[in-house]
Amino acid sequence: MSETTDQHEQRRRKLAALKERGADPFHTTRYERSHHAAEIEESFDELDGATVTVAGRIQEIRDHGKVRFADLVDDSGSVQLYARKSDLGDAEFEAFADLDRGDILGVRGSVFKTRTSEVTIAIEEFELLAKALRPLPKQWHGLRDIELRSRQRYVDLLANPESKRLFVKRSEAVAAVREFMNERGYLEVETPMMHPIPGGALARPFVTHHNALDMQLYLRIAPELYLKRLIVGGLEKVYEIGRVFRNEGISPRHNPEYTMLESYEAYADYEDMMGLVEEIVNRMAEVICGGPRFVFRGRELDVTPPWPRVRFMEAIKERTGVDMTEARDDESARQLAAGLDIDLEQRPTLPQILDGLFDHYVVPELVEPTFVLDYPTVISPLAKRKPDRPELAERFEPVMAGMEMGNAFSELNDPDDQRERFLEQARFHAAGDEEAHPMDEDYIRALEYGMPPTGGIGLGIDRILMVMTGVENLREVILFPLLRPVS
Questions:
Q1: Confidence band, pLDDT 50/70/90 cuts, at residue 140
Q2: Element (DSSP H or E) covering residue 331
Q3: Could you tell me if 90 and 116 are in contact, meaning their C-beta atoms sit under 8 angstroms apart?
Q4: Does 279 have pLDDT greater than 90?
Q5: Cβ within 8 Å of residue 226, ≥6 positions away
Q6: Which of 158, 273, 318, 404 could form a disulfide with 408 if both were Cys (CB 3.0 to 4.6 A apart)?
Q7: Which of 278, 227, 187 has its CA nearest to residue 382?
Q8: Four-point Cα dihedral 358, 352, 311, 444, nearest 10
């Protein structure tokens, strides 16, 4: 029998014995605390000798014969407990001695300092509020495997203080982004998670079914088209922070469900959006890292504006030696890409080839925060054409640490051009591109009412957090990432 299994059974026996004595450790519905653990030390001069009530989880218990010490941990920190047999009496002292690491306790006692000057609570009475039936892993040692930590995040948070600090920072960073957007007059809105047509990005959607309406729906791959409908409706600056869903692979850089910030501003363009992205990312860095510099994979990155800019087609030519501006259709693109590191056996479309070359040859080389701009219109079905180069779109992607962090455009607001783009996407879909954008007649109808010139951005919050916190796997910054079921 393993040590863990043996401890589990021992704790089960303790629970049974407690219940036999009529002491159910799960009966308490509420416990009123006068202080949190960290407050005891912070306010010791005021609390010295005072009676306080605290509650939390027992982290360690130390036996010294007729006295016992324990560390009680709550959301604020920890405080030492002191149990003396002469104060509690034989029965209560034995009950305290019978506690296990992980048990949740309510304590009433007086504050003092030990001879080693450690702030401590001398227990006058205590109550077992919940019995931990499974043993906690030893701090910093028992829960290192990233998959196990992701599957049992509740244990990870208990065993690894750094993991808890990371997720607190995540929450603070998202709150800072929300505060930043509100300060600049953006209106936070909510748009549907289930769409009748999957749109707003080039990705494969998750499919679901609404029984009452007997219709197929799709989990959103982006809130873009709904947010731009709001721009049409006269809400000139809107944003949403929420989950999006892409039916794609799982890797250290990909999770099928992740958090996106999307925002749109009337009478702005992609140049304005570059400035907005720089400000947002700097605000996040200030909260997470204390400033614009941080280390990822042993290299210091600096998000101080302005970020350098490279152009999409020029970057591909520089790194492959092939001028893809000469590609006019799928076949010519395949001929140009022959000999490059891209799978041509599946007969990819022109957009698939351009995306594949960019992802393979360009993105991994861009470590410093960089804007890649002026994408081909053929892979930018929702972006406005450049007036002087209609084959290119006013689109950019922020790239950092060899990863794309988002997407942004001067938004296409010509309904006739948008229809033609959707029809072109339909042709790519028929040629085998499952990520091509579908036709959305209602969105075109909205554009026909008139949408002002608009700039928009979408930023992947999780990837930015991953880089700024220096972790190697996206799972580390997502509380409950999607994992394959354990067989």
A1: very low
A2: helix 330-337
A3: no
A4: yes
A5: 191, 192, 200
A6: 273
A7: 227
A8: -140
Whether 62 shows a pLDDT value over 80: the answer reads yes
Q: Which pLDDT value is given to residue 280?
A: 98
Phi-psi group of 412: left, alpha or beta (phi > 0 → left; psi -120 to 50 → alpha; rest → beta): beta
Could you tell me which residues come within 8 angstroms of residue 453 by beta carbon, excluding any fewer than 6 positions away? 266, 267, 268, 269, 384, 410, 411, 413
How is the chain split among helix, strand and coil, in percent rounded to 5?
A: 35, 25, 35
How much is the average pLDDT of 223-250? 95
Confidence check: pLDDT of 355 > 60: yes
Dist. CA 87–CA 319, nearest whole Å: 76
Which CATH number is 3-136 given?
Answer: 2.40.50.140
Q: Is 315 helix (H, G, I), strand (E, B) or coil?
A: helix
Pure H helices in 255-329: 270-289, 312-320
Q: For residues 424 and 350, what is the distance between their CA atoms, to the nearest angstrom?
A: 11
For the chain, the C-alpha Rg in angstroms (whole number) is 29
List the chain domain ranges.
Answer: 3-136, 156-308+368-477
Question: How crowded is residue 206: how many other Cβ atoms within 10 Å of its Cβ?
Answer: 16
CATH tag, 156-308+368-477: 3.30.930.10
- The C-alpha atoms of residue 215 and residue 192 are separated, in whole angstroms, by 16
Distance separating alpha carbons of residues 269 and 297, to the nearest angstrom: 34
DSSP letter for each residue of 92-117:
HHHHHHT--TT-EEEEEEEEEE-TT-
Residue with tokens 């996040």: 284
* H-assigned helices in 186-248: 224-232
Mean predicted lDDT score pLDDT of the chain: 93
